[in-house]
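Friendly challenge for the regulars: who can give me the structure tokens for this chain first? No prize, just bragging rights.
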Amino acid sequence: MFVGHFGLGFAAKRIAPAVSLGSLFLAVEFADGLWPIFLLAGVEHVRIVPGLMKTSALDFYDYPWSHSLIALVIWAAIVGAAYFAASRSRRGAWVVAALVLSHWFLDVCMHRPDMPVLPGGPFVGLSLWNSVPATLLIECGLYAWGVGLYLQATRPRDRTGTISLWALVLFVLVLWLAALFGPPPPDVRALAIGGLSGWLLIAWGYWIDRHRAPRIAGRT
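First reply, four minutes later:
Bragging rights claimed.
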């Protein structure tokens, strides 16, 4: 899953208006932010197998530290605690922690049975990436829902608040469609380096939120 994670990040602004969109993106994408780093370090591994699934050529055979359920429970606790230490917001910390953990459950819907519960298994997955219509419906549905809730929860402070938001919404959508229907990555290193660009989208989220204001006061 890709745009679906961002959709959930957008949607969370509705229940945590005081939390920056950048922090919400960081939470939902935390697992995918760690993964390319672990790939480049040789800690985790993936194979590129064209035709493996109808919408994915990636064989995720070894990624226990970024994507197992138990690892994400631990990462959620760490990220949530760090957010609380920085903001003193209990509500924000719980939302951020829940979003980190949400990554596993959303990925289970799309992946083959390769999502580890514990580092050594068992492995689960509903394989919805094997259906192009299901992939488009679920991911686009989550994304549209999340963007809609974000628009309800915030208003632009200036013109940048409008342009930067819609530029991101369209850029993420085009990036996802290109990955979905384009050729697979040439090699694992190129895949990992491309994956690191996700951190730029998180920074983009912080920039957007500096130019938008909550429509309702944030609660702690």
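The first helix runs from residue 3 to 12. The CA atoms of residues 70 and 202 lie 24 Å apart. Your move, everyone else.
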